[in-house]
Each structure stands twice: as structure tokens, then as C-alpha cells.
Specification:
Radius of gyration: 14 Å
CATH topology: Rossmann fold
Distance between the termini: 12 Å
Number of strands: 5
Largest sheet: 5 strands, parallel
Order of helices and strands: EHEHHEHEHEH
Number of domains: 1
CATH superfamily: P-loop containing nucleotide triphosphate hydrolases
Structural class: alpha/beta
CATH architecture: 3-Layer(aba) Sandwich
Number of helices: 6
Shape: globular
């Protein structure tokens, strides 16, 4: 079963950018990696329902997809605005992109709850040490 890395945060916080960089770095470290992006999944399912029910359905999709892959690591980026989203996905490692305080979607802003538990909190997107993050993932997850 793959190690599940969740990159979460408000829209526009840099989740996709970090996930792409992280995935490439992990591949450079000789891991097999599957990337799962929230917008790509919503597009594939033609599901742009951002109600709580729609958001939870998306979390179940991520969980199901991540359970059925053969790669070493799955890097998944989605907002995960409520704690139940995280509980459903069951990540092994959480990166909280806390780089913005306000987003362009009022409903998401109002719904978003800061995670109680996370492995790394990134508050400044300009000074990310990706090698440090990879090392921490390796240490924390036993890779």
C-alpha cells in the first residue's frame, strides 16, 4: 500500500505547485509516485459540487483512488476544508500550505478549518526546502 501524502490548504496557497515539485523530487529519489490533483479529479467526474456533501464525496474519491495504486507514494493535493475530509482520506503525512489567509471563494474561506495535526506547516512559499520535506517524509513514514 502506498504512503499517502496530503498537501492541503486554501485555494491559491500553492498546493499544486508544491505537489508537482515534491513528486518530481521523490521520483528523483527512486520512488514510484502517483499524483492526484483535486481539479483534475473534479474534471474527470464532471463534479463541481462544493457543498459539504460534494466535498466529502471528493475526499472518499481520493481515499479510494489512493488505496488502489501500486506506487510507493501518492501525493494528493486538495483543500480538505473540514477535519472530516482528512479523516476520510487517512493521510500518512500532512503538509499544510498556510501561505494565504484569505482566498477568492467566500464559501471555502468560511468552511475552512485549520488542521489540528500536520507534519509540516508552510507559511512562506518562497523559502521551501523541498529536500528537507522529502527527508522528513522518509523519516516519518519509514520509507
Amino acid at each position: 500500500m502506498a504512503i499517502k501524502v496530503l498537501v492541503m490548504g486554501l485555494p491559491g496557497a500553492g498546493k499544486t505547485t508544491l505537489s508537482n515539485t515534491l513528486s518530481n523530487n521523490l521520483i528523483d529519489q527512486q520512488y514510484t509516485v502517483k499524483r492526484i490533483n483535486a481539479d483534475e479529479i473534479r474534471t474527470a467526474y464532471d463534479d463541481w459540487d462544493f457543498s459539504i456533501t460534494g466535498r466529502l464525496r471528493q475526499a472518499y474519491r481520493f481515499f479510494s483512488m489512493s488505496e488502489n495504486i501500486n506506487e510507493d507514494i501518492v501525493v494528493c493535493d486538495f483543500i480538505a476544508p473540514i477535519s472530516e475530509s482528512i479523516e476520510i482520506f487517512k493521510p500518512d503525512y500532512i503538509i499544510w500550505m498556510d501561505t494565504i489567509k484569505n482566498c477568492r471563494y467566500e464559501d471555502t474561506q468560511e468552511l475552512f478549518v485549520n488542521p489540528k495535526e500536520f507534519n509540516i506547516r508552510i507559511q512562506d512559499f518562497t523559502n521551501i526546502d523541498i529536500d528537507n520535506i522529502v527527508n522528513d517524509i522518509q523519516t516519518t513514514t519509514g520509507l
